[in-house]
Each structure stands twice: as structure tokens, then as C-alpha cells.
Write a structure and sequence with these properties.
Blueprint: H1 9-23, H2 30-37, H3 41-47, H4 51-77, H5 81-92, H6 98-108, H7 112-134, H8 140-156, H9 169-181
Helix pairs in contact: 1-2, 1-4, 1-6, 4-5, 4-7, 6-7, 7-8, 8-9
């Protein structure tokens, strides 16, 4: 008799990330995940000791995708500092990562441990921006201000619903990016 097929740990994490992005951390339940994956709850407990262990793994995966994978891709693709800043924004808040990032941000408002994780991720993102923008400008205060503006633009783009009077949203973002980067 063949051993039972086990649902891989990463499949549970990926399903949890999708649920987190769509419905928030409260919706990440063992029963929901098992139904989504078409398996029994018992399979979950062969991979995770608890729901909290899964949530920690979800945050680990989000952090890895948001920092390590983005930096690896930027390194592989190369380019000058300005193109890397722009590319980092597109990759960091891509259509795959943005919903997860926004869900984590909302979750962090209620959960101190998640807030600490978000702070670490955002600090990594800011450090990278400072490094790149620091190659364009020598004044540390200006580097900090431009980095903050660039990071704020990335996040706020998805939170602001206002229309624009002198161009499309994409055109305005491009103009703001040129101002920040000194084009």
C-alpha cells in the first residue's frame, strides 16, 4: 500500500497568503485552508504544530518575497540607481505582492509582533532606497528625504483615490518619480 500523499508545507503557506490578501488574518483558518486545498485538517498538523506556526511561516514567506527575491531580481537585472529605484517599487508592490503587503499593514495595526515584522521589512526597503539614492546625492538629509518620498509614493499610490487634473495616474507618478530622483 502506497503512503498517503501529503500536501507540501509551501502549499499551505501559499493558500494562507492568498486568504490573507483577500480577507485578512482572521480568515486564515485551518478548516478554510483544508477546504481550499481539498484535503483534511489532519494534513495541516503534519506540517504545522499550530495556526500560529503557520502565521509565522506566512510572514516569513512574505518577508522573503518582499525583500530577498526583489533584491535578487534587481541584482540580476542590473541597471543604474534610478532604474533600480523605479524597478524596486514595481517589484515590491507588484500585483502579486501588493495585496499581501496591504493586508500585513492592516494586520500590523492590531498586532505588535506583526508591526515589528513590518517595521523590519520597511527598514530594509528604506535602507535599499538610501543606498541607491545616496549614489545620486551626497547630502545625507536630502538622501533621507528623497528616500522617504520615494517610499511614501510607492505605498500611497495604492491608498489615494483622488483623481488628477493634468494627466493620468501613471503620468503623475512618473512626474513625481522624476522630481524625487532629480531627473
Amino acid at each position: 500500500m502506497a503512503p498517503p500523499v501529503r500536501t507540501p508545507r509551501q502549499a499551505w503557506i501559499d493558500a494562507a497568503l492568498a486568504i490573507l490578501a483577500a480577507s485578512g488574518p482572521e480568515a486564515v483558518r485551518v478548516e478554510t485552508l483544508a477546504a481550499e486545498l481539498g484535503v483534511t485538517r489532519g494534513g495541516f498538523y503534519r506540517q504545522f504544530a499550530s495556526r500560529q506556526e503557520l502565521l509565522d511561516a506566512v510572514l516569513d514567506s512574505w518577508e522573503h518575497r518582499s525583500i530577498d527575491e526583489v533584491l535578487q531580481r534587481l541584482d540580476e537585472e542590473g541597471g543604474d540607481a534610478k532604474s533600480k529605484v523605479r524597478k524596486a517599487g514595481r517589484l515590491t508592490l507588484s500585483k502579486e505582492l501588493l495585496p499581501i503587503d496591504m493586508a500585513v499593514r492592516e494586520w500590523a495595526r492590531r498586532e505588535p509582533a506583526v508591526a515589528a515584522r513590518l517595521e523590519r521589512v520597511d527598514n530594509s526597503r528604506m535602507d535599499y532606497l538610501r543606498e541607491l539614492i545616496g549614489t545620486l546625492h551626497s547630502d545625507p538629509r536630502e538622501v533621507e528625504a528623497r528616500s522617504m518620498l520615494a517610499f511614501s509614493l510607492m505605498i500611497a499610490d495604492y491608498l489615494i483615490a483622488a483623481g488628477h487634473r493634468t494627466g493620468t495616474r501613471t503620468e503623475i507618478i512618473q512626474s513625481a518619480s522624476r522630481l524625487i530622483l532629480g531627473d
